[in-house]
Protein backbone atom coordinates (compact mmCIF):
# COMPACT_ATOMS: atom_id res chain seq x y z
CA UNK A 1 0.00 0.00 0.00
CA UNK A 2 2.84 2.38 -0.76
CA UNK A 3 1.54 5.76 -1.86
CA UNK A 4 2.16 6.89 -5.39
CA UNK A 5 2.84 10.61 -5.55
CA UNK A 6 4.47 10.27 -2.18
CA UNK A 7 6.17 13.67 -2.28
CA UNK A 8 2.87 15.45 -2.81
CA UNK A 9 1.22 13.47 -0.05
CA UNK A 10 3.93 13.91 2.55
CA UNK A 11 2.56 17.13 4.03
CA UNK A 12 -0.92 15.59 4.29
CA UNK A 13 0.48 12.59 6.14
CA UNK A 14 1.85 14.92 8.80
CA UNK A 15 -1.69 16.17 9.41
CA UNK A 16 -2.84 12.64 10.21
CA UNK A 17 0.14 11.37 12.20
CA UNK A 18 -1.69 12.05 15.44
CA UNK A 19 -4.84 10.07 14.90
CA UNK A 20 -6.68 12.00 17.58
CA UNK A 21 -6.29 15.21 15.55
CA UNK A 22 -9.62 15.37 13.77
CA UNK A 23 -9.74 19.09 13.07
CA UNK A 24 -7.30 18.98 10.18
CA UNK A 25 -8.16 21.74 7.73
CA UNK A 26 -6.63 20.21 4.60
CA UNK A 27 -10.00 18.65 3.82
CA UNK A 28 -12.50 21.42 4.47
CA UNK A 29 -15.15 19.62 2.41
CA UNK A 30 -15.26 16.66 4.82
CA UNK A 31 -17.93 16.89 7.48
CA UNK A 32 -16.49 14.97 10.43
CA UNK A 33 -19.51 15.86 12.55
CA UNK A 34 -21.78 14.22 9.99
CA UNK A 35 -19.68 11.06 10.16
CA UNK A 36 -19.87 10.97 13.94
CA UNK A 37 -23.64 11.45 13.87
CA UNK A 38 -24.04 8.62 11.39
CA UNK A 39 -21.90 6.26 13.42
CA UNK A 40 -23.74 7.12 16.62
CA UNK A 41 -27.07 6.33 14.92
CA UNK A 42 -25.82 2.90 13.90
CA UNK A 43 -24.42 2.27 17.36
CA UNK A 44 -27.67 3.31 19.03
CA UNK A 45 -29.78 1.04 16.83
CA UNK A 46 -27.52 -2.01 16.59
CA UNK A 47 -25.77 -2.43 19.93
CA UNK A 48 -28.84 -2.78 22.21
CA UNK A 49 -30.39 -5.30 19.81
CA UNK A 50 -27.18 -7.34 19.60
CA UNK A 51 -26.41 -7.23 23.32
CA UNK A 52 -29.73 -8.88 24.23
CA UNK A 53 -28.98 -12.35 25.53
CA UNK A 54 -25.24 -11.92 24.97
CA UNK A 55 -22.36 -11.31 27.31
CA UNK A 56 -21.99 -7.60 27.98
CA UNK A 57 -18.27 -7.66 27.29
CA UNK A 58 -18.36 -9.99 24.29
CA UNK A 59 -16.74 -8.64 21.12
CA UNK A 60 -19.07 -7.30 18.47
CA UNK A 61 -19.71 -9.48 15.41
CA UNK A 62 -17.86 -8.89 12.16
CA UNK A 63 -20.93 -7.71 10.29
CA UNK A 64 -21.45 -4.92 12.80
CA UNK A 65 -17.84 -3.81 12.44
CA UNK A 66 -18.23 -3.88 8.67
CA UNK A 67 -21.40 -1.79 8.88
CA UNK A 68 -19.67 0.69 11.14
CA UNK A 69 -16.71 0.88 8.76
CA UNK A 70 -18.94 1.45 5.74
CA UNK A 71 -21.02 4.11 7.45
CA UNK A 72 -17.95 6.25 7.95
CA UNK A 73 -15.85 5.44 4.90
CA UNK A 74 -18.39 4.99 2.12
CA UNK A 75 -20.08 8.30 2.78
CA UNK A 76 -17.04 10.29 3.85
CA UNK A 77 -14.12 9.20 1.72
CA UNK A 78 -11.19 11.56 2.14
CA UNK A 79 -8.89 11.84 -0.90
CA UNK A 80 -5.24 11.54 0.12
CA UNK A 81 -4.04 14.10 -2.41
CA UNK A 82 -5.48 15.99 -5.34
CA UNK A 83 -4.10 15.02 -8.71
CA UNK A 84 -1.95 12.04 -7.74
CA UNK A 85 -4.06 9.70 -9.86
CA UNK A 86 -4.70 7.46 -6.89
CA UNK A 87 -7.91 5.60 -6.15
CA UNK A 88 -6.94 5.30 -2.51
CA UNK A 89 -8.61 7.19 0.29
CA UNK A 90 -7.67 7.96 3.83
CA UNK A 91 -9.94 6.36 6.36
CA UNK A 92 -11.04 8.92 8.94
CA UNK A 93 -9.31 8.13 12.21
CA UNK A 94 -12.58 8.50 14.08
CA UNK A 95 -13.85 5.34 12.40
CA UNK A 96 -11.03 3.40 14.00
CA UNK A 97 -11.60 5.05 17.37
CA UNK A 98 -15.25 4.02 17.41
CA UNK A 99 -14.43 0.53 16.22
CA UNK A 100 -11.84 0.09 18.94
CA UNK A 101 -14.21 1.45 21.58
CA UNK A 102 -16.91 -0.97 20.44
CA UNK A 103 -14.66 -3.99 20.58
CA UNK A 104 -14.09 -4.61 16.89
CA UNK A 105 -10.43 -5.22 17.64
CA UNK A 106 -9.11 -3.12 14.77
CA UNK A 107 -5.60 -1.67 14.87
CA UNK A 108 -4.75 1.97 14.27
CA UNK A 109 -2.90 2.53 10.99
CA UNK A 110 -0.31 5.24 10.42
CA UNK A 111 1.82 6.58 7.61
CA UNK A 112 1.52 4.82 4.28
CA UNK A 113 -0.68 2.17 5.88
CA UNK A 114 -3.34 4.84 6.38
CA UNK A 115 -4.00 4.52 2.63
CA UNK A 116 -6.37 1.77 1.60
CA UNK A 117 -8.60 0.81 -1.26
CA UNK A 118 -12.15 2.06 -0.66
CA UNK A 119 -14.60 -0.77 0.06
CA UNK A 120 -17.00 -2.15 -2.56
CA UNK A 121 -19.95 -0.08 -1.48
CA UNK A 122 -20.33 2.92 -3.78
UniProtKB/TrEMBL annotation:
Q: What Gene3D superfamilies has UniProt attached to this entry? A: Frizzled cysteine-rich domain (1.10.2000.10)
Q: InterPro entries in the record, alphabetically?
A: Frizzled_dom, Frizzled_dom_sf
Domain (FZ): give its ranges. 4-122
Q: Which domain of life is it from?
A: Eukaryota
Q: Protein biosynthesis: is it a keyword of this entry?
A: no
Sorted alphabetically, the keyword list is:
Disulfide bond
Instruction: Specify the protein name.
Output: FZ domain-containing protein
User: From what organism does this protein derive?
Assistant: Hanusia phi
Amino acid sequence: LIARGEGVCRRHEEDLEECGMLDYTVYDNVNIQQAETQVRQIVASEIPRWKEGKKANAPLPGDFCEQLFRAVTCNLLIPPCEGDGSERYRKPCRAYQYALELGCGWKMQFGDLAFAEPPDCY
